[in-house]
Specification:
Structural class: alpha/beta
Order of helices and strands: HEEEEEEHEEHHEHEHEHEEEE
CATH superfamily of the largest domain: von Willebrand factor, type A domain
Strand order of the largest sheet: 8-7-6-9-10-11
CATH architecture of the largest domain: 3-Layer(aba) Sandwich
Distance between the termini: 35 Å
Number of strands: 15
Radius of gyration: 18 Å
Number of helices: 7
CATH topology of the largest domain: Rossmann fold
Largest sheet: 6 strands, mixed
Number of domains: 2
Strand content: 25-35%
Length: 289
């Protein structure tokens, strides 16, 4: 990534922060939405919890849960496919798995498909129309080039910036960002991380069997509550997409009123009072003024 492109990434993040485009629930007060996945000790998704089963803390202090829903959540997101040359003959399996994901969409889901190698391309279609999405996969997904990972995540967020509710960025990659010096990569990844928290994106990642996903991307999925899946074999990619889709559908929606609307990042902790349950939730939230 050259210096002009780096500047563009950072400038776009800075612009969105300056204009305060932070999605919130609007009622008589400001409510911060939090999307939470709960699994049992054996990994099964838990769907029968009520509001009183949860304990939510902001900066270590318990907050009342003022909004709650256990209904299945529709998907509004962008699927970012790594099409760098390192995929080699795995490329066709990745396309086939992405087509399988399209087949699994429901009428209330909306998906946009993007690719990244040396360049990032995002389809203009955010839709549940499966024929349109299949055409994008057939005509606009081609192999070759490096891995512009962080620019892809940032561009994916931009493509969903005007959408309301939960916005999901799902990244499928076999490696890490190439073409940047380590110091520059850290600067860009930090800016993208802060933007994701500030604008309440849920970032998920699937490692296509190859080099491990960079730690900064894993941390991004953790801090936004999206999670990541590391594949042991390429053949598992379709199963991983199925699992990620199911996890996203069964996130609980919690809402709380923060102590202060101070325009800062705050630590967040969500636990379940029942024993033997594991919780995946955002580790930080941004509270706008």
């Amino acid at each position: 990534m050259n210096r002009l492109l780096i500047a563009n990434v950072l400038a776009s993040v800075g612009f969105l922060q300056a204009t305060g485009q932070t999605p919130t629930f609007r009622s008589s007060v400001d409510v911060v939405p939090v999307y939470v996945l709960v699994t049992s000790a054996d990994g099964r998704i838990v769907t029968d919890l009520g509001k009183d089963d949860f304990l939510l803390k902001e900066d270590g202090r318990e907050r009342a849960i003022t909004t709650f829903s256990s209904a299945e959540q529709p998907i509004t997101g962008v699927l970012l496919l790594d099409v760098s040359g390192s995929l080699g003959n795995r490329f066709l399996r990745v396309k086939a798995a992405a087509s399988h994901l399209v087949d699994a969409l429901r009428d209330d889901d909306r998906l946009r498909i993007g690719t990244f190698a040396d360049e990032v391309g995002i389809s203009p279609h955010l839709t549940s129309n499966k024929s349109t999405l299949r055409r994008v996969l057939a005509d606009e997904v081609w192999l070759g080039g490096g891995t512009a990972l962080w620019r892809a995540v940032n561009t994916g967020m931009t493509s969903l910036a005007r959408e309301s509710g939960r916005r999901v960025v799902l990244v499928a990659s076999d490696g890490r960002d190439s073409g940047m010096f380590p110091s520059t990569r850290r600067e860009v990844s930090t800016a993208v991380r802060n933007r994701a928290i500030r604008e309440a994106f849920v970032v998920c990642a699937i490692e296509i069997h190859g080099r491990p996903i960079h730690m900064d991307l894993t941390n991004l999925t953790t801090v936004t509550g999206g999670g990541s899946i590391m594949l042991q074999h390429d053949a598992d990619f379709r199963l991983a997409l199925d699992l990620m889709l199911s996890q996203l559908r069964h996130q609980y929606l919690l809402g709380f009123v923060p102590a202060r609307m101070d325009g800062k990042f705050h630590r967040l902790s969500v636990t379940v009072k029942r024993p033997g349950h594991r919780v995946r939730s955002p580790a930080e939230v941004f509270v706008g003024k």
